[in-house]
Specification:
- There is one protein chain.
- By secondary structure, this protein is α/β, with parallel strands linked by helices.
- Helix content is 39%, strand content 18%.
- The chain binds pyridoxal-5'-phosphate (PLP).
């Protein structure tokens, strides 16, 4: 299947899932996850009107950054080591993976040094999987309270990865819990953050995530096929 056809199918599935949930499809943004994909494939996607790229490694963003067509938004969706944060601050539109205080401190320091704000999502390990990063559900509100002291970090919402399951419906409670947490945070009326973004849903489960309120879906293999080695 051509990249163009795969993309159209993904857009169509998003549209159908939004319709099932009575949602406006314009409230859902596609992040095309391009990790391991070579630059020429990424440029093909951009030529097909992809406008947001997701990568999970700092090195890959830096290597590809100058080679892909512009304008395009870069999203850091993977675990971010503190000592590499400064390498991408001027490149990415949104970091989806703020998962610990030490990283917040580093981001605050680096963003303040550049006299700019860095946009982030707080990553939540809803299913408490050992293999995944992210705060536990119960840790999120106390963490967000502390972020009032980080004026150069702009919190835009929450992100999660659901466990891989055969039947994507089994991932539904994970997405629902993240949405409910978002609603709880909104009720708190924090003046130092917004909760506009719910980044959830990947190839296996994005349709369920959209039904449960995702505003960003991060999709790789459904668009690009199997990941390449790099
Ligand atoms: C790789 C990755 C994705 C996309 O995964 P697919 O199953 O290929 O859609 C989404 N989110 C994160 C954080 C990833 O690392």
């Amino acid at each position: 299947m051509s990249l163009e056809t795969s993309l159209q199918q993904v857009y169509e599935n998003i549209r159908l899932a939004a319709a099932r949930a009575g949602r406006n499809v314009d409230d859902i943004q596609l992040i095309a996850v391009t990790k391991t994909m070579p630059v020429y494939v990424i440029n093909e996607a951009i030529a097909s009107n992809v406008t947001r790229l997701g990568e999970n490694k700092v090195q890959e963003i830096c290597d590809k950054y100058d080679k892909v067509s512009h304008p395009v938004e870069w999203h850091m969706i993977g675990h971010l080591q503190s000592n590499k944060a400064r390498d991408i601050l001027d490149k990415v539109s949104l970091i989806h993976s703020l998962d610990r205080m030490s990283l917040a401190k580093e981001l605050e320091k680096r963003a303040s040094g550049l006299d700019r704000k860095v946009k982030v999502l707080v990553q939540v390990n809803v299913a408490e999987e050992d293999s995944k990063h992210g705060l536990q559900l119960s840790e999120v509100i106390p963490f967000l309270e502390k972020m009032a002291d980080f004026p150069h970090i702009s919190i835009n919402g929450l992100m999660t990865m659901a466990p891989y399951v055969e039947d994507p419906n089994q991932a539904r409670p994970v997405f629902r819990q993240l949405r409910e947490l978002r609603d709880k945070v909104v009720d708190r009326n924090f003046s130092h953050l917004t909760m506009d973004v719910l980044s959830m849903g990947m190839t296996n489960d994005y349709q369920v995530a959209v039904e449960e309120g995702a505003t960003m879906v991060r999709i790789g293999s459904a668009i690009f096929g199997e990941r390449r080695y790099n």
